[in-house]
Design a protein that fits this description.
The chain is α/β, with parallel strands linked by helices. The chain has two domains: 2-170, Rossmann fold, CATH 3.40.50.1970; 173-355, Dehydroquinate synthase-like - alpha domain (Dehydroquinate synthase-like, alpha domain, Up-down Bundle). The chain is 44% helix and 18% strand. The protein is built from 13 helices and 13 strands. The protein has helices at residues 25-29, 46-54, 76-88, 103-115, 129-135, 173-190, 192-206, 210-230, 245-255, 262-279, 285-297, 310-317, 347-355, and strands spanning 2-6, 13-18, 36-42, 61-67, 96-101, 122-126, 140-145, 148-155, 160-164, 329-330, 333-335, 338-339, 343-344. The strands form four sheets. A seven-stranded mixed β-sheet has the order 1-2-9-6-5-3-4, with helices on both faces. Helix 6 (173-190) runs parallel beside helix 10 and helix 9 (245-255) crosses helix 10. The termini are far apart. The protein binds nicotinamide-adenine-dinucleotide, ligand LNCXM5UN and zinc ion. Residues 134, 182, 245, 262, 266 line the site of zinc ion. GO terms for molecular function: 3-dehydroquinate synthase activity; metal ion binding; nucleotide binding. It catalyses: 7-phospho-2-dehydro-3-deoxy-D-arabino-heptonate = 3-dehydroquinate + phosphate.
């Protein structure tokens, strides 16, 4: 098993990465400092992994909340189910919440932990590739609003992250690919070598080769942990983790949550960001073709939805969290392996790019 530390002073925590960690009773209980424990999961994950985890928690006052499955349930209304369970069982401020699931469960449970009695400890047990490489690390928690993605939330760090790569074997292919989108992101924003490694090994990743999966989880967590350690609350460099997300979040909200998976929307959004970077003269045609080709090889979409028109996009992007004084700001690419900090883009340039995506300047 490999351990990595997210260095955040008194909020520092370990990420445990390995195979079979869900069968490690000592590890699963190492960071629980309370008698009361609430496991939050969903109706898909519960039959697969709930027992495997709760079997090691029999010495605690254990409660379980099983939420409905889907991005459309990442709402304030769903959080009420968690608060009702905590209050009806009279859980105290030292109780521990365990998030067992993908990014949706992690984001909701983390935000519930941040809010309940103004903050209780929580533990992330991510069960999708996307959650293992991205959402379980870094403390962004929250829920969606009908008018904007992740608009209600808090920065709230977990006590630890426990990753078991074995659980990736039960993920369906579409969900695996969605996770690969965020893995490609790390190569694009920070490491041309890692990007080239993904290009060379994409077949092994998609075939769920244990070594390939372990490698991308370790590399991705390493990149994310370093970025978060240097800028916990996104006042600067952390924003590069948002590559492709300004377009991607507009797609998710505009098309209705759950229509496109988050990773799929990020894949399209990253191709749009690459196209815009080319229009600004930062990337050349060959770079953009290379990026689009890798997403395609991963089985991800690269074309924006035809029914989301440019004006609609811009209205949705107008509430992006990176905006300042109403100016839309995006993360773009200087080259493969290096992202820009947020760049303000004139509405006319954005409209031109949205209307002519993939075509000559
Ligand atoms: N907090 C962050 O930093 C951050 C980063 C990236 C994404 N996110 C958020 O994460 C969410 C997307 O997360 P996701 O891609 O994990 O989606 P998800 O949580 O919806 O999980 C995807 C699907 O896989 C199922 N599933 C989970 N684990 C499984 C397993 N081991 N075997 C079989 N099925 C399994 C789930 O029930 C669900 O149907 C979005 O809401 C996105 O905004 C947050
Ligand atoms: O951790 C971060 O910082 C990220 O931006 C990671 C993203 O992959 C993730 O989708 C995040 O939830 C987006 O954050 P938001 O602030 O744009 O909602
Ligand atoms: Zn993301």
């Amino acid at each position: 098993m490999d351990t990595m530390q997210v260095q955040l002073g008194e909020r520092s925590y370990p990420i445990y990465m390995g195979a079979d960690n869900l069968n490690n009773a000592e590890l699963l209980t190492r960071h629980i400092k309370s008698k009361q424990v609430l496991v939050v999961t969903n109706e898909t994950i519960a039959p697969l992994y709930l027992m495997q985890v709760t079997t090691h928690l029999q010495n605690y006052q254990l409660e379980v909340v099983v939420l409905p499955d889907g991005e459309q349930y990442k709402t304030l209304a769903t959080m009420e189910t968690i608060f009702a369970a905590l209050l009806s069982k009279q859980f105290s401020r030292n109780a521990t919440i365990i998030a067992l699931g993908g990014g949706v469960i992690g984001d909701i449970s983390g935000f519930a932990a941040a809010c309940y009695q103004r903050g209780v400890p929580f533990i992330q047990i991510p069960t999708t590739l996307l959650a293992q490489v991205d959402s379980s690390v870094g403390g962004k928690t929250g829920v969606n609003h009908a008018l904007g993605k992740n608009m209600i939330g808090a920065f709230y760090q977990p006590q630890c992250v426990i990753i078991d790569v074995n659980v990736l074997q039960t993920l369906d292919d579409r969900q695996l690919a969605a996770g690969v989108a965020e893995v490609i992101k790390y190569g694009l924003i920070r490491s041309a070598d890692f990007f080239a490694w993904i290009e060379a090994n994409i077949e092994s990743i998609l075939a769920r080769d244990q070594n390939a999966l372990t490698y991308i989880v370790e590399q991705s967590c390493g990149h994310k942990a370093e970025i978060v350690a240097s800028d916990e609350r996104e006042s600067g460099i952390r924003a590069i983790l948002n590559l492709g997300h300004t377009f991607g979040h507009a797609i998710e909200t505009g098309m209705g949550y759950g229509h496109y998976l988050h990773g799929e929307a990020v894949a399209i959004g990253t191709c749009q960001a690459a196209d815009l970077s080319r229009r600004l003269g930062w990337l050349n045609d060959a770079d953009v073709n290379r990026i689009v080709a890798l997403f395609k090889k991963a089985g991800l979409p690269t074309e924006p939805p035809a029914d989301l028109l440019a004006e609609g996009y811009i209205n949705l992007m107008a509430v992006d969290k990176k905006n300042v004084d109403g100016d839309i700001r995006l993360i773009l690419l200087k080259k493969i392996g290096e992202a820009s900090l947020p760049v303000s883009v004139e509405k006319s340039v954005l409209l031109e790019a949205l209307n002519n995506y993939g075509r000559e300047n």
